[in-house]
Every structure is written in structure tokens, then in C-alpha cells.
Specification:
Strands 8-7-6-9-10-11-12 form a 7-stranded parallel sheet, with helices on both faces. It is of the alpha/beta class. Strand 9, helix 9 and strand 10 form a beta-alpha-beta unit. The chain has helices at residues 14-17, 68-73, 86-101, 104-113, 121-131, 149-160, 174-179, 190-196, 216-221, 239-247, 280-300, 332-342, 371-378; strands at 4-8, 25-28, 36-39, 55-58, 78-79, 141-145, 164-168, 185-186, 199-202, 226-230, 251-256, 269-271, 320-327, 347-355, 358-365, 383-389. It is elongated and about 90 Å long. The protein has 13 helices and 16 strands. The protein has 3 domains: 1-85 and 280-309, Rossmann fold (3-Layer(aba) Sandwich); 87-271, Rossmann fold, CATH 3.40.50.720; 312-385, ACT domain (Alpha-Beta Plaits).
Amino acid sequence: MKKYQIQTYNHISNHGLHRFPSARYAIGKSCDAPDAIILRSHQLATTEIPPSVRAIGRAGAGTNNIPVAEMSKRGIPVFNAPGANANAVKELVVCALLISARNLMPALSYVAAIDKSAPQLDKLIEDGKKKFAGVELPHRMLGIVGLGAIGSLVADTALKLGMKVIGYDPEITVDAAWRLPSSVRRAASIDELLRQADFVTLHVPLLAATRNLIDERRLAMMKNGAVLLNFARDALVDEQAVIAALRAHRLKAYLCDFPSAALIGEPGVLALPHLGASTAEAEDNCAVMVVDQVREYLEHGTIQNAVNFPNVDMPREVPYRVAIANANVPNMLGQISTTMAKAGLNIHNMVNKSRGEMAYTLVDADSPVEDSVVRALAAIDGVLSVRAVPAAEND
């Protein structure tokens, strides 16, 4: 029986790691030939990923710290845990909404600076009360850029608080659309959303197309006195443009999860030390989700929530299975079938799915897939990785 080796970086919740059966898995921070890597925020260098690695699991949503493009070239799926920390981030966003609406940032600073031995302490406190009067959230417009797991939860909570909600997400999935409250108004563009919102919150991944999504031009579109919240990724926002908008009093406040040298101490900025997913519950949920996905892949070849592979599932009816990652090019299935037929293998079942330039194929055979067949499949032009998946074991 094969014993898989799992290498971990960062602290991974034991609620997740305990889901690896000890009889079949060895887990540690140092492994000679790990079958998979599980990590959180560690910046994973390509040189840290040995040839033995078959999968990488990120116990969180973002995968900026993983060389995903290089892993795709090697036929290695990179799993994440979308939605597992959504409630934690939602709660922090709602907290930020309330902090900004009630001017709690400057109010707290004001009280902290008061000399408690001052003879007119009560008057100083009352003066602060007058200075920091805020607004209530009902009937204010919240603009949500990105309507995935987190964005939809934020929308639902904002509506329950009496806010109006407008959202924008050109890449919204069917599942996300089903989750979205029907009273959320859809914007045709980010620009339309920015012009109407009193508060704007960002919930999109960091990609080439979203880097500096909120820049000088878009900040100028926002209402005077609007509030910007960013609990997604730091580089979605042009920090210098935000600082300029704050200093010009066009933007009331910027609340984010990403302190930087430019932002720290800047009036109107509340920068938290990346607390979005920092709850015990979120860490447990992320670890459980990603461990289950990595385990299913190693033991059965199935894929769920890989950022660079299609979702693929096929029930096992026979014990002999081969998993093939390949470029999405014509006649690949024909070449795979021909290679297996030449080896005298009868294909019991087969599934092939693609995602962009990547394709993934599971093939079940009626007899064992020998190493020579694996090598022949690997030699096909366009094949990135091939693995004979061991017969399933009982827990």
C-alpha cells in the first residue's frame, strides 16, 4: 500500500490534517519526496517544488504566492478553498462599514489623545461627540465589485442592515448567481457602480486585468465623501491615487487589510494586519476543504476547485485508473486510446474536460496499467503529466 507524503508550510489546522488517515499519509514540514504540498501564505518558490509533487493545496482563496503557471506546465493542479473563509471576511467588511459610517477611526484617536487629568475632561469628551457625528447605513448604497462567495454574503448582510446594493461581476458563475439576493441591482460596468455608491467594497482576485483596478481615473468617478473598502488584495488599488483622493477630501476613508509604508499613519486610512481570514473557524474550514480535495486527487484522480484545471469526477467501477494532464489540443483522446489499445488495455470508462489551454483525462481500464504504458502515454506530444492512480483503499 502506497503511503503518501504531505509537506506543509505555515501552520495548517489539525482539523484538516487529521483528515489524512495516518496509515496512508505521512505529514511533516520536511519530506524527502512529497506527493503534495499544503500551505497558507508562504511564498512558494519553484525551486521548493521537487519532481515528486503531484498537487499543491492552498488553505485559503488566493494563490498569488504559488507559481501557478509553472505548475500548469508540469501538469500539477493547484487547489484552493473558495468560500471557506467567506464568513470571516464578510464580518470584517461589515465591521469596516460600521467603523467608517460612525467615524470611529478619528473618534478613537481623539479619545486616546485626551489628557485624562485635564480639568475639563467632560467638556473635551462632549466636543468630540460633536466632531464625529456619523451616518446610518439604511438607504445608503453599497457597491460590491465581485459577487462570488464573499461578495454575495456581504450583499445579503448589507440588505439586512437596510442598505441598497449594486453589484458588478462580469465573470459571475451560475452558482454565485443563485446565491445572490434578488434585490441586488446589477451594474453594467464598474464605472456605473462607482458613480452611484456611497461605500465601495472589492472582492475580486488579483489578476493582470484587476491590478490597479481602482486608480486615479476611477477614484475621480466616485461620489465626494465616498468610502472605499479593500479586503481582497492590496494591488487592486493604486495606493498613491487613494492617498491623493483622501488628502483632497474627495474620498472620506480607505479601509483595507494591507498596511504599507505609504498608508501607515495617513489620515483617513484604517489598515489592518491581514485579518480577513484570521479566525479559528476560517482556518479550520480552509484546511478541511483543501485537505479533502488533495486527498481525493491523490487517491482517485478527481479534481475539485483547482485554479488551473477543470473540475473532473468519475466514479470508480474498476481498480485500474490512469490520470493524464495535457494541453488542450486536437486528437489527444484518440492518441491516448490508441496507446492503451496497443498495450492490450480495454477502456472501461473515460472522461475528459478542458479549461482554457489545459485538459485533464481520467481513464479506467479493465486490467492493470503497467509502467511501460504510463511511459508511452507520457511520450505523447502535449501530455504534461501521467499518473497511474492506485486502487482505492478502505479507511
